[in-house]
Amino acid sequence: MITIMLIWGLNLSLIKYSLIEMNPLSFNGIRLILASFSLLFFTYIFEKNLKVQKEDFIKIIFIGVVSHTVYQFVFINGINKTTASNTSIILATSPIFVSLLSSFYKHEKTHWLGWIGIFVSFFGVYLIILGKSGGFKISSSYFKGDVLILLASILWSYYTVSCRPLLKRYSPLKLTAITMGIGTLFFIPVSMKDMRNIHWQSISLKAYGGLLYSTFLAIVFAFVIWYYSVQKVGNSRTAIYSYLQPVFAVIFAFLLLSERLTLIQFLGALIIFIGIYLAKVGYNSLGT
Fold first, then answer.
1. Contact at 8 Å (CB) between 274 and 118?
2. How far apart, in whole angstroms, are the C-alpha atoms of residue 124 and residue 36?
3. CB burial class (10 A; 0-12, 13-18, 19+) of residue 20?
4. Rounded (10°) angle between helices 94-104 and 112-133
5. Any residues with CB less than 8 A from the CB of 60 and at least 6 apart, and which?
6. For 8-46, how does the pLDDT look when each residue is reduced to its tens digit (9 = 90+)?
7. What does residue 165 show for φ and ψ, rounded to 5 degrees?
8. Per residue, what are the HEC states of 70-99?
9. Three-state DSSP state, 19
10. Which of 51, 152, 215, 254 would you call most buried, defined as having the most Cβ atoms within 10 angstroms of its Cβ?
11. Which CA distances in Å does 47 have to 41, 42, 171, 177, 202?
């Protein structure tokens, strides 16, 4: 999970860079098609089939549409309409939604110490964003993007929780491949017009690099590992690591873009690690 947070920590900056040269829908349409073909290919190679049980068919279609078609649409448009800082702190709400949904569906219980850890880490994320850009900015020009990112956080949390029962019957690779393949089929009509209008020759190698990184590392590799973790240790224990993403994003900005690291950001990172530790202790005390 730490590796995945490293990958996603860099991914947001690369997406923002690629979107300078590519339309959001065309960017997402291309990466979803590439990711789906890759996942389905590897699933067929390693598992020899793409079969699902009849009783799961409708649920898997619904999850695929909600968690890939709708989620990817609001996610990519949200990133395009708000700041990277606002995106980071809004996405950091996902562990809260995951724990709430897990409790609602009675998949897991969260100990009071776990809740403390969740909110402590969330505060740490805010300190990191505060140290980088002055914190969360409420602006009418960013409002639509902020709402879309909040909706994306809720949808990602739903995806995480709703897949947990299915992971008892399907591997993370197969479930990710099938749900993403279904979601991509419904996303193609939405993005087809924009994909047709791409001027391929005007796109730089850096933008192509961002597209390939976001496709094969941030989606294909990361999604499978995410659900492997959900399968092995549960929804909330997996989601709590999301708080590390802005920590790594700041580190990459320092290493690659020479952005200054501040004392308040170091403090925020320390608080995040303390919060993750508290949450893990809380989950362990429940034996879940």
1. no
2. 35
3. exposed
4. 160
5. 52, 166, 175, 178, 179, 182
6. 888 877 887 888 899 989 999 999 999 999 999 999 999
7. -65, -35
8. HHHHHHHHHHHHCCHHHHHHHHCCHHHHHH
9. coil
10. 152
11. 10, 8, 9, 12, 40
